[in-house]
Amino acid sequence: MVYLTRLEHFNAAHKLYNPNWSREKNEEVFGECANENWHGHNFDLYVTVKGEPNEDTGFIIDAKKLGKLIKEHITEELDHKNLNLDVDFLKGKMCSTENLAVVIWERLAPYLPEKVKLHCIRLFETPRIYVEYYGE
Amino acid sequence: MVYLTRLEHFNAAHKLYNPNWSREKNEEVFGECANENWHGHNFDLYVTVKGEPNEDTGFIIDAKKLGKLIKEHITEELDHKNLNLDVDFLKGKMCSTENLAVVIWERLAPYLPEKVKLHCIRLFETPRIYVEYYGE
Amino acid sequence: MVYLTRLEHFNAAHKLYNPNWSREKNEEVFGECANENWHGHNFDLYVTVKGEPNEDTGFIIDAKKLGKLIKEHITEELDHKNLNLDVDFLKGKMCSTENLAVVIWERLAPYLPEKVKLHCIRLFETPRIYVEYYGE
Amino acid sequence: MVYLTRLEHFNAAHKLYNPNWSREKNEEVFGECANENWHGHNFDLYVTVKGEPNEDTGFIIDAKKLGKLIKEHITEELDHKNLNLDVDFLKGKMCSTENLAVVIWERLAPYLPEKVKLHCIRLFETPRIYVEYYGE
Amino acid sequence: MVYLTRLEHFNAAHKLYNPNWSREKNEEVFGECANENWHGHNFDLYVTVKGEPNEDTGFIIDAKKLGKLIKEHITEELDHKNLNLDVDFLKGKMCSTENLAVVIWERLAPYLPEKVKLHCIRLFETPRIYVEYYGE
Amino acid sequence: MVYLTRLEHFNAAHKLYNPNWSREKNEEVFGECANENWHGHNFDLYVTVKGEPNEDTGFIIDAKKLGKLIKEHITEELDHKNLNLDVDFLKGKMCSTENLAVVIWERLAPYLPEKVKLHCIRLFETPRIYVEYYGE
What we know:
6 copies of one chain form a homohexamer. By secondary structure, the first copy, chain A, is α+β, with helices and mostly antiparallel strands. The first copy, chain A, has one domain (2-133): Tetrahydropterin Synthase, Chain A (2-Layer Sandwich), CATH 3.30.479.10. Chain A is built from 3 helices and 5 strands; from the N terminus they run βαβαβαββ. In chain A, a hairpin with a 2-residue loop joins strand 4 and strand 5 (129-133). Chains in contact: A-B, A-C, A-D, B-E, B-F, C-D, C-F, D-E, E-F.
């Protein structure tokens, strides 16, 4: 069993704002992240898959093919977008990095080839804060 | 003459959109950067100053003091903000990284101590794109 | 279950020196790390916690709050200190990065909120050497 | 149980080419990586070992000693080499990063001291693509 | 005057070998870099241009357009290639990073728009060795 | 004219303390950097030289040779040392990064080959603070 990780990027705007709460409570809980006019990040997305290297290629999956799957199903939907407003599959969710990682897992997993298992979604919101989800 | 550089960060939303143009022309010129709902970045701001080290301290300027000046006059105004909507000193300007670097220079220079000269504003929009301004 | 990691820094002096050994044996075992006059590092400390995202916030724990806990209980005690001389909770311990990671775990774990579990302390001594401790 | 990781580097040429296939099939499967005249990478190799810190030293293993073992048994064999042509222990293998990580594990594991277990070989082919092998 | 820098990558094989010298002299001068079977690198190419921001766009040049010019005229010619064998415009040149930077300048400069001046080619051979050329 | 830069490292302890001042004044000016028991850093030293590439080698200077000169004359004198106590050529100087960069220039310049000029000493004290000296 070998693990392969591929990095892709997207730049997006978001805010942390619970619509069931008053603005005051949102500002109390989320601070500047609740700014009604949004802020944004360069998100770094590391996708790790696992499997056995194919005998003929030495690959678990071609890293270029993995990159294409991530772009097609994830980053093209998120890049240069407002995560709260523009992304159907985030509608109605709190737009935290934690929730974003879980949704990315759910969106990407069905598109991997049969012998390749999704192992981890690691999502950097800033170089100092990141989240990991293992599908557990 | 010695040069001292200090890195600070801010995370912000913006869009590239010329209000004198139609939406179509904005999308043609700025592509996904013109998304009306904004996108965002983790900006890395490197400020370089120059001067002669003080005999008693060995410092051009205390790097902690430089950091405080940058935070007070620049990054606290920009962090977790919408650069097009929330920042007075960017009003009426195209919100490109080029223009942002020039405005940061103009805002910061007057606050440096007399013997310390501002040398360069280097602003990373992404790890792969950055702008430098030397006040020329 | 989602994992959240936060990076904090501290700069410190230390030496590797076993007081039960002669200076010769210390130099033989620890080489230049045994220099009696100390050396130092910029330590990078990654703290990983795990938990379930809260429904109202989308957070395992607010990353800013986690940062404050790390600063209050760990990095303010270690930053700009001599790890062998200035830090009560390291007294009598060999000041290796391995031991430092274990002590940081023991110091930080009691302060996390009830539903948040400490998962990993990762401590970089240099960009090329790091240690991880999972409380096992 | 504590984990220690050490980074070493090597620069090498390789190509992905299955000699049982036609050139056309190789180009179809491996694309530009099949270029008959080779291409190359700066490989970053992270070796993680695990064990209990020794009471007298605080070390699982001296990181300098671990670095020497990696250099002697792995990177001196691979650095500035053509992985397909110059390296005996890669002969007859598809020269993918996956296979390279597995071979590095097999080569390095026997040389570690008795109380130190090899935990992970992480090999970066580029800053955006890496492979991990845990001996499973 | 503002400076804009864009990073692009290419991975390539090369060797340092002067055909006018004996193999012994090549090995004496270039050491392992003269390995007849090649070695390789992940090259990082930073291209810096300068100009005045356009009033309507705020751009010196659209960073995406600059990226396309670099890809079309430089990195597509070099990526996954053998620099000594596969690249017409390097034929007959010693394949040092110094010479490569100069050739990249000469190849790219004519394709920049009129009001944009090429300022610097910075080429990393490894994360620890890079070359800069300013057209002087 | 081409510029070549080489990165080397050293880890060292120091403090900022002016012996002509009281402890109170030192703490007021230098804060935690004046800790009498020292602190330390992983210093990153970038040395940039300039010259014309040699026709036979394509080199300004062999980067390996430059690395050896830096190690022999600079980093072996500083690595795992106390900059205030252990280094003859820093005696009597305030141990700021500014002064350290100037001294490194003065120590290294005489050892470069005749046709190679020292251009810049860039010294990182932390990833967020660095100093540059151009011999001016």
